[in-house]
Each structure stands twice: as structure tokens, then as C-alpha cells.
Amino acid sequence: MFALFVIAPMADGAWISLFRWDGVTSGTWVGLGNYRAAFEDAAVRTAFGHSLVLILFYAVLPVAVALSLTGLLVHSRVRGVAAVRTLIFLPQVLAAVVVGVAWRWLYDPEGPINQALAKVGLGSLQHSWLGDLSTALPAVGVIGSWITTGLCLVLFMAGAQRIPPARYEAARVDGAGPVREFFAVTLPGLRNELAVALSLTVIAALRAFDIIYVTTKGGPGDATTVPSLLIYTRAFVTGQVGSAAAIGAIMGVLILTLVVLITRLIEERP
Amino acid sequence: MTAGGMERAVTYAVLALFSVLAVTPILVILLAALHPPGALLTGVELPHTLSLSTFRFAWDTGGFGRLMASSLLVSAAVVVLTTLLCIPAGYAFGTMQFPGATPIFYVMLAGMVVPFESLIVPLYYTFRDAGLTDTYWALILPQTGLSISFGTFWMRAFFRSVPAELADAARVDGASSWRVLWRVLVPIGRPAILTMVVLVFMWTWNEFLLALVMISDQTHRTAPLGLSTFQSRYGVDVPSVSAAAVLVAVPVVIVYLLTQRHFLRGMLAGSIRG
């Protein structure tokens, strides 16, 4: 009986490693040359560059906004938060394809955002948000911010509730102002939540396939091309399977490294 | 006191602002879906007559009955498989020492963060060689594989939190490990298991890339894939596309609203996949 419990997880491990092993074999099909080509490929570099911009919108901005709000509001114990939490979290639940369809209409030249701009007298700012080379990538990024900000806010506010009030009193006795209090008490108290939020949002930014596929398909030109989209088009449209597999492996390693880094940097300090 | 009241007012204002920001795009799409099919919209407009005909149109022309059935079947299968595999796996990782436990567990954790985007190429060729593309298995098996890592991690955390005395007491009464697990621990763990079920259901229902790559025939397509196809065919018909999007979102939103307590706890407890 005891063996059964050992074998079951072993089988699960083998199941997972099967996929991992798959990843490695397709890498070896084509040799390391594919990786070198990927690193030298301007399109791949551009795509990862776009990922960096998306990380700004998906991860950095929402985390910063949510953190400062939490710091600001940390002393108010409000009721009725549960209902608000349900709403704020909603974007996280929807299928990315649904989100993409919704925002495509919001950004449409005839869509609600341009209409709102005209209403408040900013009609000169109207344009095709997703069709314009200069705004397409930030526009996609804003969708990401919309998805992840609620997640960060919910995470941090829940975390802040768990910080013992005694720590704030101690800080006040030491004469700390609101800013010092934030850095001395709130921020360290949210360490775990911060690690989780950053990991989740950075992963979301690096993946970002569904939304881009539905809204821009990487265009206009290559303005919103990201690695996941390159993987898809190269493997299943243009027949550069080896290259696609290499990009996939690079992306997997990159995500793993980033998550480990984030967790190490933030969590393991005493 | 007034300072506290002021702060509370600011808090409410901020929370209200973010709620509005979160909900507005959803309301906009709902509103667009209430217009008749094919209507040309300019921004946010109130429909002249209130009718649900667009939902019917989208349901029929997009074939969403079949799409939803496919998605439901795949999601149910993934949820059942994941639950059955992760409960014993989490139990073993959480309560037992066995050779290689730590390395295997780390491999599992890696599985939580590595996305389909990285695995999709080898996955596709493996399944194609096995003749499994355009079958539900091509969706169920990989999705279960990835869900297992989260599920095992999640159930391990639960089994660690259960006091060991409980299992010991049952064991003294002569129960085997297997019996202790299913008769004693699983009933206590129902909330944790429910959380896992809800999260896995949602991830499976929403998964797009896997279906896009694995499925090319009509019969096995899932709801998100159907929505994407519907959009590329009827792209200019904003009301119909919006209605289709709402249809695809509804099941997950219902599940979310019914189980949000469990759901949020799962996310808050530090699930890495998302």
C-alpha cells in the first residue's frame, strides 16, 4: 500500500517530465545552431524587446500602483470589501480571448474610447489604437494592466490585513512618517505577496499569446510581435519548426529563471 | 476621528474607482451585445429595443451549442483526472518521506511556471505522430499534465496543514494509508479540493493556444477557439461578436461568482500558474 503512494507521484513526475523531455528532444533535432540563430535573429530580438515593454505594463505598473494604494490605505479597515474584491478580480477570470474581443471593440476607430475622447473635447487624439504603429504595443499593454491590476490589489490588500498592528505602533513610537512607515513596515510585510504578484504578472506578460492573437496578430507590421506569437507562426504557419522550438525553450528557461530570481530576491531575505 | 473618516472615504473612493475600471469594459461588451445582429455601432449606444436575438444569432451561426459541449467535456475530464491524481500525489509529498521526493517536487514546481507556449511545438508533433490531433485527448492529456503540478503543490500544502495526530489515530485503529487518505483526510479537505477543482476548470475552459494548435476540425473545437473563428468571420458585426464573447465567458463567470471565496483563497495562497 505504501508503495502505491510512492508510485503515483512518480508517475505524475514522469508525466510532466515527458513534456519536458519532448522540449529537449526537439531542441536536439536541429542542434544548437538553432539557438545561435535565434539569438542573432532580429525578429526574435524585437519580439523579446516587446516582451520587456509588456512586462512594464503587465507587471511593473500594476504592482507599483497596487503597492502605493495599499500603503496609502493600510490603516483603514473598511467593510464591504468582499464585493469590491469580486469585481476587481473579475478580469482575471475571463478567457483572454474574450478579453481580447472586448478590447478590440473598445479600441476600434468607431469604438467607445474614441467616442469618449470626442465627448470630452479631445477628439484630436482619436485614432485607430491597435492599427497605429506607435500605439499598438502600449494599447495591448494597457489590456494587460487591466487584467493584472485587480489581482495585485487584491493580493496586497489581503496581505496588508495580516501585518500585525503592533509593528505600526512600534514604527510610530520611533517617529516614522507615512513614507518611512511604508518602507519599514508595509513593504517588508508584503514580501510574499509581492513575489507572487510579480511572478504571476511577469509570466502573464511573457506568454501574452491569446490577447495578441485576437487583437492584432502581431501587427501592424511587427509592432506587437511577441515570442509566443513567433513560436506559433514559425511552427504552424511558415514551417520553421526548429526555430520555433528553440524560441519556446528560451522562453521557458527565461520564465523559470525570472521566477526563481524574483522569489530569491524578495522572499529569502530575513 | 475625522482623519479616520477622511481616510475611509478615500479608501472607498479608490476601491470604487478600480471596480468601475474593472467592470466598464465588460459592461460595454454586454451593451454592444444587446444591439441587433449586424447593427453598426458608434461607441457606447443604448439599443432601441431590448432583445436577446443577437445571442440567439451568435449561438446558432457560431455553433456554440457544440462548442460549449466540447469545452465542458474537456474541462470535466481534466478536472476529474487532475483531482484523482493530485490527491494521492499531494498526500505522498505532504506526509511521507521517499527517495527522490525533493528533486521530483522541484520538477513539479517547474511545471507550474512553464507555459504551453514553450511546450506547444514538441507537444503538437508528439500528438500528431500518435494520431491524436483532432481528438479530445490532445486537449485533455496536456492540460492535465500541467494542472497536475499545481494540484500536487496545492494538495501537498493542505496535507501538511493537517495535524499528524489525526491520521495517526486512524492508523492505530488499523486503517491503511489508503483508507486514512480517502476516509479521513479527503472529507476534511473538501474546501481545498474544491478550490483546486475551480481553478483547474477555469484554466482548462479558457485555454486557447492548445486548442488552436491541436484542433483543426469542426467537431472538437472548444469555446474560446470557436469565438476566435467567429470573430475572424464576423469581425465587423460588433453586436454578434460581443454576444459570442459573452456566451463564452458566462460559464466561467457563473462558477467564479458561486465559488469566489474558494477561488480567491486559491489565488491568494500563492498559486503560481495563472
Q: Descriptors for this entry?
A:
heterodimer, A: 270 residues, mainly alpha, 13 helices, disordered N terminus, B: 274 residues, 77% helix, disordered C terminus
Q: Give the tally of β-strands of chain B.
A: 0
Structural category of chain A:
mainly alpha
State the separation between the terminal residues of chain B, measured CA to CA: 41 Å
SSE ordering of chain A: HHHHHHHHHHHHH
Strand count, sense and barrel status of the largest sheet of chain B are: none
- What's the average pLDDT of chain B? 81
* Helix content range of chain A: over 70%
What pattern of helices and strands is seen along the backbone of chain B? Answer: HHHHHHHHHHHH
Low-confidence stretches of chain B: 270-274
Secondary-structure content class of chain B: mainly alpha
Distance between the termini of chain A: 41 Å
Q: Report the β-strand fraction of chain A as a percent range.
A: under 5%
Strand tally of chain A is: 0
Largest interface: A-B, 93 and 94 residues
Number of helices, counting only DSSP H or I runs of 4 residues or more of chain A: 13
Cα gyration radius of chain A (Å) = 22 Å
Average residue pLDDT of chain A: 79
Number of helices of chain B: 12
| Oligomeric state, counting identical vs distinct chains | heterodimer
Largest sheet of chain A: none
Question: What would the principal axes of the Cα set say about the shape of chain B?
Answer: globular
Short account of what is shown:
The complex is a heterodimer of chains A (270) and B (274). Chain A is mainly α.
Describe this entry's structure for a reader.
The complex is a heterodimer of chains A (270) and B (274). Chain A is built from 13 helices and no strands. With 270 residues, chain A is an all-alpha fold. In chain A, helix 3 (42-73) packs across helix 9, helix 4 runs antiparallel to helix 7 (136-161) and helix 10 packs antiparallel against helix 13. Chain A starts with a helix and ends with a helix. Chain B is mainly α and 274 residues long. In chain B, 77% of the residues lie in helices and 0% in strands. Chain B is built from 12 helices and no strands. The radius of gyration of chain B is 23 Å and the shape is globular. The model of chain B is unreliable at 270-274 (pLDDT under 50). Chains A and B meet through helix 1, helix 3, helix 4, helix 5 and helix 6 of A and helix 1, helix 3, helix 4, helix 5 and helix 6 of B.
